[in-house]
Amino acid sequence: MSFKKAILALCLIVPAKSFSQRCNCYNDFIWLKNTFEKNDAGFEWTINKKGVETYNNFSDSITSIAKVTSEMTSCENLLNDWTKFFRKGHIGIYSNSTASNTHKPTLVSKTMECNTNELNKIEKGIQGIWQIDSTYALGITLLNDSSNRKYVGSIVESKTPEWKQGEIKIEFFENNNKLKANYYMRDHSFNTFDVEQLSDNELKVGYIYLVRKSKMNSIDPLESEILFTDQCKVVELSNKTMLIRIPSFEYSQKHQIDKAISKNLKAITSHENLIIDLRDNGGGADNSFSSLVPLIYTNPIQYHSVEFLATPLNIESFKGMNSSFLARILIRKYIKKLERNPGQYVNLFDDEIITVKQKKIYKNPSKIYVLVNEGCASSTEQFILEAKQSSKVKIVGTNTFGALDVSNVTTINSPDSLFTLIYSMSRTLAPQNERIDGIGIKPDIIIPRTVMRLEWIKFAKGKIEAEQN
């Protein structure tokens, strides 16, 4: 499971009132540091890799800042900066106070006309005319003024009365060669997001997806429907190819995934090709992909088990699990095993390598593409590693996120209840050369940046149907 939290920032050109709560950041940092060091299963690996001296020097620098920090949002950002020393997934800390991270600005009208004729000619970079679904078209222009803004996006077309032509809807700021943006919502409040240029014709601002307007007419509406759905979908793309779209492996989605595959199993197994679209699936629970395994299976699948760090806090997390009656019996067995090995790493499942065998091998689909990108993490990466062992499967897309080796996330509140820490209780038994944290999984077929995300299904369908068995 990946954890992302957008922090609302004070816009540099729009006055705003802040209602942030105060905190004792130094005490919260000492609690965070002690709790993480004692209970996180990945802590030891990071220290072994980066060294004790480097870690202590970094922690000392954070301590110095924490001593003079009392504003909640600043403290939250500082604490998260400390967690980034260890890894980029299955870790983090967030504020439990809505007052610390939300506000609405008092607006000052801000407008800027752009040269749409010139911007329409631009086909690379941030500048150009961009479309946000069917609601807005923005002209994004490079600035040459004295402000801290690098680019500004003003309204060219709007289908809502709240926004008028020429009004600035987005402002880009550059810091350490990275772009962030203040994006103004429909009610003119704003969020601050990271900015990522996915391709020459696609821009991602937080969760907001922009497409270069000149390319909109060439996009198949089905591609957009599939990419942005929050439901499991099964679609026939042609008489040769079926598609299964799964945006999440959260356990709450398991029933829906199982039902969709069961309902369409006859159609799926009567087509030569299958595309499994897992783009931006941040993971969830491994058993959520159990109904996919028979479709990809050609030979026994093996994967490494994990070991849990046996600490009182981690054992309490097991005791607090909400589970079925049968699962609780198993959990009690695990708890006893952890309690017998205090302070040790414990393999609860006995075998270091687990083997999955299926009795049946489906003739069709005979060729399977699994679509992946940098939004694929955790349990999704576990499925990808298992799928790669099938002779039917090719992984297609871009590198995955890389957050699997340190896993089984739990949470704990700070003593003042102002913050919640996310950390991991287990680590993989895979040898170091097979670990993927911070690296990700490289696809068998890399989709070039020139192919828009809204053309990936077209790309995959064309390629899989052109292949010979």
UniProtKB/TrEMBL annotation:
Keywords per UniProt: Signal
Coiled coil feature spans: none
Source organism, top-level taxon: Bacteria
Signal peptide bounds: 1-20
SUPFAM superfamilies found in the cross-reference section: ClpP/crotonase
Pfam families xrefs: Peptidase_S41 (PF03572)
Domain Tail specific protease intervals: 271-448
SMART domains the record matches: TSPc
GO BP: proteolysis; signal transduction
CDD domains: Peptidase_S41 (cd06567)
UniProt GO MF annotations: endopeptidase activity; serine-type peptidase activity
Cellular component, GO, one term: outer membrane-bounded periplasmic space
PANTHER family, per the entry: CARBOXY-TERMINAL PROCESSING PROTEASE CTPA (PTHR32060:SF30), TAIL-SPECIFIC PROTEASE (PTHR32060)
Protein name per Swiss-Prot or TrEMBL: Tail specific protease domain-containing protein
Phylogenetic classification of the source organism: Bacteria, Pseudomonadati, Bacteroidota, Bacteroidia, Bacteroidales
